[in-house]
Fold this protein.
Amino acid sequence: MTYARNSMPPTTAFTAVAARRNFAGQQQAGYSSSTSPSPSAAGSTNLPDKGKRDWPPQVRSYVQRSFADGNILPDVDRQEMEIKLKKIISQSVEEGTLAIIDWDNLPLPQVMIQDERRRTHSSHFPPLPSKQNGHSILTNEIKSNKRKSAEIEPSDSTGGQSLPWRQSDDRESFESRLSYPDKRPRNGAGPDSPFSKSNQAPEARKKRFQGALAGTSSAASLRPWRSSTTHEVEPTEPKGPIIGRCQDLEKKYFRLTSAPNPDTVRPLHVLEKTLDHLKKKWRREKKYPYICDQFKSLRQDLTVQRIKTSFTVDAYEIHARIALEEGDLSEYNQCQTQLRALYMQNLGGHPFEFLAYRILYFLHTSNRTDMNDVLADLTPTEKRHPAVKHALDARSALALGNYHRFFQLYLDTPNMGAYLMDMFVGRERLSALSAVCRAYKPDVRLRFVTEELGFDSDEDSARFICEHGAPHLLEERDGGVHLLTGKAPGFFDSALKAASARPGVKLPT
């Protein structure tokens, strides 16, 4: 290196070092990526292989009701509700009570969360404590909560004995702690000392569990925040099903919040008389709210007594048919869920009839997933049954868009399937009208629409068209009424789209 004649000498106060070009590309020795497995690889080796669990129908119905739009509470978050629901089901699986719990009458998780919030809110405002020996307990508790040493605050309320957490050596006073700012153990207070926390915690746990195993621990010892004068009785689950002693034929339905009382539960022979009484009363009065309440009470008495016989199947079938007649799909679904479990036990009843209802219900809700499950489980015997065959033909007609065949089946529905088909026949009529308007131009006679779409009269078909906002498409001429299909491009398509978006709404028929 060359310097000028009058320049500084070559010796400098620093040593030139080449700049480091790349920080990310360099890797320090001893920290190779191969020494620490990736989180994904480590986690994959510890995850158990979880198989698909076949949950009982009652649990599936309970989960569906929990997330139904009508049961959602605005003040309960969905994530909090899912955590509570998972806790309920997991606890029932661990305790082996999954098939014993009355899932139909069990409070929903959002209701349980609200109850817990109310109890927590009420516990924040306890009653004022009483006075003992002229001194207020509240005053003593406030004093004991202050962070003071044993030398500063006297312990008069404890009879001259210092509290357990304030027992300490004289050297551990406030002044001595200021004199020993270091944290090193002093005077035998090391890890091997009986006064260290590491040795006190196991001893405390040992005493607590020994007392619990010996049966000497009380509620106050297990719950130090409770008063020692409070005596609580832990609830005990019944070892077996109860046997009712109530003799009343009619009883209002109440949701159970505790163990059932045998004095308010009717035995089987009384429930048989109750069912006959309710059937006669339904034929005479037709008061559905009252009958539904009585049937729910009857079903509850059957559940708490764990009665699963042909009589149980008969009671659920009758309630399901009445709910169908009144269009109460909520109660119908509850009965249908219980009937599926009862039919698996071969207790009699009419499984083919309610299988057909189930297929029609899935047509109403457009539930393709459950429909595929039902079709996959059908046996050749079930497919040959008239009611099931009718429901399958209706499904096939809708899948092929054959509205002519569908409405022929609609007019010849066995049993009570017509009540279910009435719930979605309006939607299918809109679909058929859309197809008619595309296929027939410029108009068709209204009588043709009446016969093809299964209306009882021309007045009913004209009323249906007017109720969906198309009175301008009807024109009276040549001694009859005509539907102007040429003036309705896509008109019924929009109405059909709105109807398909809410399958639970019954359209006018």
Notes: The beta strands are 131-132, 135-136, 444-445, 474-477, 480-483.
